[in-house]
């Protein structure tokens, strides 16, 4: 109970709201989007292999670089999202 005594009400409400939205988004959209993206990736890769295996190999060569850049972007965006949540809890 000391957590609720020490933590501002706005922070608790903001966290509860954001967590609820996150869980709802995960089950309604993110999971289906992920399955769809995997299917599209596999289908595209197969089509590329059939059309030109050399070009497919070249594209796959750059794929780790793309994953690295996406990971760097994700790490930077997490900081921005945390700051936004903090500001929202201050407003509430």
TrEMBL record:
Localization: Cell membrane
InterPro entries named among the record's database cross-references: ABC1_TM_dom (IPR011527), ABC1_TM_sf (IPR036640), Type_1_exporter (IPR039421)
Residue ranges constituting the ABC transmembrane type-1 domain according to the UniProt record: 1-92
GO CC term (a single one): plasma membrane
Transmembrane helix among keywords: yes
Bilayer topology: Multi-pass membrane protein
Residues that span the membrane, as ranges: 30-49, 55-73
Keyword annotations: ATP-binding, Membrane, Nucleotide-binding, Transmembrane, Transmembrane helix
A Pfam family matched in the record: ABC_membrane
Keyword Transmembrane: yes
Top-level taxon of origin: Bacteria
GO molecular function: ABC-type oligopeptide transporter activity; ATP binding
PANTHER family from the UniProt entry: ATP-BINDING CASSETTE SUB-FAMILY B MEMBER 10, MITOCHONDRIAL, ATP-DEPENDENT PERMEASE MDL1, MITOCHONDRIAL
Name of this protein: ABC transporter ATP-binding protein
Protein species of origin: Streptococcus pneumoniae
């Amino acid at each position: 109970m000391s957590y609720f005594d020490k933590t501002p009400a706005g922070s608790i409400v903001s966290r509860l709201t954001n967590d609820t939205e996150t869980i709802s988004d995960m089950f309604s959209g993110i999971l289906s989007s992920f399955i769809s993206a995997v299917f599209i990736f596999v289908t595209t890769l197969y089509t590329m292999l059939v059309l030109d295996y050399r070009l497919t190999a070249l594209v796959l060569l750059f794929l780790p670089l793309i994953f690295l850049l996406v990971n760097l972007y994700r790490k930077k965006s997490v900081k921005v999202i945390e700051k936004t949540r903090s500001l929202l809890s201050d407003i509430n």
